[in-house]
Amino acid sequence: MRKVKISVDELSTAFDMVSAETVCFLDVESAEIETVNEYTMSREEIDKIYKAIDENPDRFIQIPENDPHERYEEMTEFADGVTDFKLRDKLYAALESKGPFRKFKDVLLNYPDERKEWFACVDEKIQQRVLYWLKENEIELTDKGQI
Questions:
Q1: pLDDT band with cut points at 50, 70 and 90 for residue 147
Q2: Which of 10, 69, 89, 104 has its CA 20 to 30 A from that of 16?
């Protein structure tokens, strides 16, 4: 098992950041997150990161992209648990519309308590994914990384 000095919160932030445009890697030696985004970085910066990864493939582990189906399921589960029928209907309508992820969050803008609850739920799900990923990649958090 590799020991890495990084916090679950730092990894959770990286997990949440990964998308079609953004790729993240954990450097298991330095405990740094290397982020590649073709829209915000120069070609030289990107090439430098990928060169380091190519030269040390055992040192870097790619953080997986979020599964949109899983995220959609989480939103559906959350909507199912909402007791305010009016809000629940709005959330279901957002889920059935084009661009459900943005519209779901937009609906919650007018419901601060439920919005806070939604983001706490998201944080918990991401943390669960991080912990599973750590176990799958045989990584143990040390010092700063203890939960």
A1: very low
A2: 89
